[in-house]
Specification:
alpha/beta; TIM Barrel; eight-stranded parallel beta barrel; 15% strand; globular
């Protein structure tokens, strides 16, 4: 397993982490992801550890906290060998303060996550989204306090806009508080908007990227092909975190055609090629892989230990390219001024 420094932090993480959103299966949305229970979860954790994958990602809202509970039981006796990432911000109740990034909510959410996980600290604590109703200073102050208290080792964010992240970094620097070391973001061959602003920001500010849904909720798994019926998978069951309008199926099939070609050249699966492409992108330090069973997990683990050639990467780049909105199309006209473009 390859390990990379997470952003500008001193923490080294494996390039693959295991996403525990498939644990629990509570509610229609997460039931479509999976319903892994403790026994199978323990087996999946052991397979990951044997492969060198020691980072496990969850969130308090996954199956209304059940994912954290199952992960906590699956890692019993192994805490010193694992890194845990979890998240807060989204609603965990019906009360007026049961959501957001306020001091009131984050302190409560962190304590409840620690209890469900059965641990005394969280290695990477994410804000699951940006709360525009709470002052950034309040949010970062409480996160800094959680770090100083020892309950949290590193802080990160997820699903932020560029200005959300840049403002947060500036405020943290102004007061000498803990900074976000990583941004957990959606990025895949099917959707590359992450490259327009968030990637250049990450390069400039040394913020690592943890990629969620690297296979576009299964669209890049090899199951979706032109002129074939759609499989009865997570998208069809209403469990996709990616809105239907975001992905153009005609563009998807064009990408899959090239993935087929590269898969044939490498002897790897379409999913493995898709994941390997991401591992060669700037700022990407970790990719979250999910699995409902051992077979899926072992296949995803095969995405590491080899690399696509430069020509293969270029073919996939060309197939998945899209026309950006303003001002990014204007900036693209002068690639020599673009930090990200120089690294491809």
């Amino acid at each position: 397993m390859e390990y990379r420094q997470l952003g500008a932090s001193g923490l080294r993480v494996p390039v693959l982490s295991f996403g525990a959103a498939t644990f629990g299966g509570r509610g229609d949305f997460f039931k479509a992801w999976g319903a892994t229970q403790v026994e199978e979860a323990t087996r999946l954790v052991d397979i990951c550890l044997d492969a060198g994958v020691n980072l496990f990602d969850t969130a308090n809202v996954y199956s209304a906290g059940v994912s954290e509970e199952i992960l906590g039981r699956a890692i019993q006796g192994k805490r010193s060998r694992v890194l845990i990432s979890t998240k807060a911000t989204f609603s965990m109740g019906t009360g007026v303060n049961d959501y957001g990034s306020s001091r009131t909510h984050l302190i409560k959410a962190c304590d409840e996550s620690l209890k469900r996980l059965g641990v005394d600290h969280i290695d990477i604590y994410h804000l699951h989204g940006f709360d525009a109703n709470t002052p950034v200073e309040e949010t970062l102050n409480v996160l800094n306090n959680l770090v100083q208290s020892g309950k949290v080792r590193y802080i990160a964010c997820s699903n932020f806009s560029g200005w959300h992240l840049m403002k947060s970094l500036s405020v943290a620097e102004r007061y000498g508080w803990a900074k976000y070391v990583a941004h957990q973001a959606y990025y895949s061959l099917a959707n590359r908007e992450f490259e327009w602003e968030l990637m250049p920001l990450g390069i400039d500010q040394h913020v690592g990227t943890i990629v969620w849904s690297p296979l576009a909720a299964g669209l890049l798994s090899g199951k979706y092909r032109r002129n074939q019926p759609q499989p009865d998978a997570r998208v069809a069951q209403g469990g996709s975190p990616i809105p239907e309008h975001v992905v153009s199926y005609e563009n998807l099939y064009k990408i899959v055609d090239v993935l087929d070609e590269v898969a044939g050249e490498t002897g790897k699966s379409i999913a493995q090629v898709s994941l390997n492409w991401l591992l060669q992108r700037p700022t990407v330090d970790n990719i979250i892989i999910g699995a409902r069973n051992e077979a899926q997990l072992k296949q995803n683990l095969g995405a590491v230990g080899w690399n696509l050639t430069v020509d293969q990467v270029k073919k996939l780049d060309a197939a998945s390219d899209s026309h950006p909105i303003y001002p990014y199309w204007h900036q693209r006209q002068t690639p020599l001024l673009n930090a990200a473009a120089r690294l491809y």
